[in-house]
């Protein structure tokens, strides 16, 4: 069973946890570490003989087109993470369409390959922003991986379907939805999709969750992380205690956890793991 490995390519100051203290117009004032950290990720994946899907922020691709080209040259998949990392509910439908069109174009121009997939900043396809899926289909995206079927203060649709399925909107092309991985226990969905859940919680929780998804449910898992999560030396942002806890805890342990995970399970890009779904879209 091959699982989908995904990397959300953004810098440490782009995250939603810091959006109240670092407005977009101030981003250029901060030290950029995304290129160096993503190169570290590429080196780790090369060492582990693993290919992945990189959801790249358009703002990053615009400033680091050579990074996009290196990702493509290493035979990874490139996909879209929006342009400015504004969560979808902060945008009008027209603004959302403009952002994804701009980001998709920048990434495709830099990488020289088509962009098939999208992931919303902070998994912000929720019950109030499901309209975004129709716009994605209209703009030529074949799949979305933005819905997290969990209960969380920033995102999530707790009762949403947990595995890949095709959505048919009104008057649009179909689109494949690829929810982030959870396991169902005691009537609730427990997140085992990597990222902060891998970094903050015991490794065994993610390992056992993927095993259960693969063997008991006969489904691939979808795992994510960010390049800044393997950078313990990144500058510290003065924000609320919850944001600092979520962002900075166990940064120094993350790469070792990732290497252990990559050596324990088989991983591939989304375009390969879900090729059967995408062939019909």
Topology (SSEs and partners):
Elements: E1 2-9, H1 34-48, E2 53-56, H2 58-63, H3 65-73, E3 77-80, H4 93-111, E4 117-118, H5 131-138, E5 143-144, E6 165-167, E7 175-177, E8 182-185, E9 188-191, H6 195-200, H7 203-216, E10 222-225, H8 241-248, H9 251-264, E11 266-268, H10 270-273, H11 275-278
Describe what this molecule looks like in 3D:
There is one protein chain. The chain is α/β, with parallel strands linked by helices and 281 residues long. The protein has helices at residues 34-48, 58-63, 65-73, 93-111, 131-138, 195-200, 203-216, 241-248, 251-264, 270-273, 275-278; strands at residues 2-9, 53-56, 77-80, 117-118, 143-144, 165-167, 175-177, 182-185, 188-191, 222-225, 266-268. The longest helix has 19 residues, at 93-111. The chain is globular, with a radius of gyration of 17 Å.
From the structure above, extract its key features:
alpha/beta, 281 residues
Name the CATH homologous superfamily. Glycoside hydrolase/deacetylase
Q: Provide the low-confidence segments as ranges.
A: none
| N-to-C series of helices and strands | EHEHHEHEHEEEEEHHEHHEHH
Number of contiguous helices: 11
Question: Averaged pLDDT, please?
Answer: 96
Helix content: 25-40%
The name CATH uses for the topology is TIM Barrel
Helix/strand structural class: alpha/beta
SS strand fraction: 5-15%
Q: What is the C-level CATH assignment? A: Alpha Beta
What number of structural domains do the residues give?
1
Distance between the termini: 23 Å
Q: Please summarize the sheet with the most strands.
A: 5 strands, parallel
Strand segment tally:
11
Shape: globular
How large, in whole angstroms, is the Cα Rg?
17 Å
